[in-house]
Amino acid sequence: MSKHSVFEILPIPNNVKPIGGDWVFVRKPGIGTGPTRFKARYIARGNSQLSGLNFHETFAPTATFTSLRILLTVASRSNLIAATFDFTAAYLNAYINKEVWIRPPDGLAGRCWWNHLKASLATRGFRPSNYNSSVYISNVTGMVVWLHVDNGIVFAQRQRDIDNLKCSLCAKFDIKWHDRMNYIVGINVNQADDGFHLSQPLLIQFIISEYWDGQHVANAPFPPKHNLVGTRPDIAFGVNLLARHSKYPGKDHWFFLQHLLGYLDGSITQKLSLIPNRDDLNLKIYSDASWGGEFSRSAHGHLTQLSGFTGSWCSKRLVTVASSSCHAELMALGIAARHSQWMQNSLQEISGKTMVINLKCNNASCMRIVSNCISNKRTCHSDREFFITNQLFHNGLATLVWVFSEEMLANVLTKALGPQLHSTFAKQPLNVEIRSRTDLTESFSEKKLSLFNPCDKITVILSRE
């Protein structure tokens, strides 16, 4: 703080009430076999300040992981060079335009840092993307910078462009620079000749060691006909549903949570492979929805395949109640269509290429309504969702394709499929490798796990075949 001239020691005026603060000490694991780092931060008690009186705007954008996967796709297709960097004590570099005694409230420092960094990059020829405020593009060199608070990745065609940016930023900021991308915001990145492989084994190990009881081992995240919530595409539906009951969980929710952790332990080495097909310029959006559910609100999900691999996914509940399965599918398709437009525009801005949108649906009635402009008493109330997809289709910006239910990849985002179907969806479309039952049994044989009755709702429990 002294190096960056963060504070100035002055007598406290009589009309000023200073803000208290606390020290926060954190141990940050090293990357790979690197040493553990110890960090100390002095935090102001911003809860003693009032919004509109002591502070105003606190908004500061952060980059999305979908945009990261898009950039990794472009980098792999175009053979771009990638490097990562991390700003040391990022918030201390920002200027505060108000007089604050001790420290600003929670969130204000983030906005100051964002404005300061945006201005610094602007002097170096970078402008924010029109579709993602934390992605910066240089119209001169073609470089792209992806920023998540104080962590970033730079992509470029030439190494000397990266070296010039590195020298320029290091002259102004204290930065830890890595010429090869191995780790970014908690994600292990394995860069291969054909693409990138993303994994989070450290996070899964931490969750399992802290919360798992070491008993439930399964090869599907949920028993059939039960719902839960997850963080990877193969468990997104489960994680989303459990999160709805995180405030008042019941006994069943704890049981299913243990089941989910057992599944995570069985797939701890899972990697999401971003290996694009260079000849595939299609943007495939699989959209699906269930009808009914808790409080009659349907679950919906969409999965995007970008040049042949999974680029983004979503699993949520519809905001409004659907009057029929067709109505639910129509609303879900509208949400997927909006997302596909954003991805198409983002890709066009970054790579200069326009990808064709292929919307895939398995509901015949929904297909007829969109493609033939059909509207009747049962569908007239859903015009907003209808016209979003209809406009894309009839303007030639997207194609609509009907698929069999067995080929609907978004099924894994809207319902519990059971071990066999889940394995089919996880291994091929999602590139999720899950250990076999025998491997699971051998891995946990030393833990003396209790066996379950085959009649229990858990379908796979440490059984050798």
Automatic annotation (TrEMBL):
InterPro entries, alphabetized: RVT_2
Highest taxon of the lineage: Eukaryota
Xref: Pfam families: RVT_2
Domain Reverse transcriptase Ty1/copia-type intervals: 5-209
PANTHER family the UniProt entry points to: GAG-POL-RELATED RETROTRANSPOSON (PTHR11439), PEPTIDE SYNTHASE GLIP-LIKE, PUTATIVE (AFU_ORTHOLOGUE AFUA_3G12920)-RELATED (PTHR11439:SF483)
Name of the protein in question: Reverse transcriptase Ty1/copia-type domain-containing protein
Species: Austropuccinia psidii MF-1
Lineage: Eukaryota, Fungi, Dikarya, Basidiomycota, Pucciniomycotina
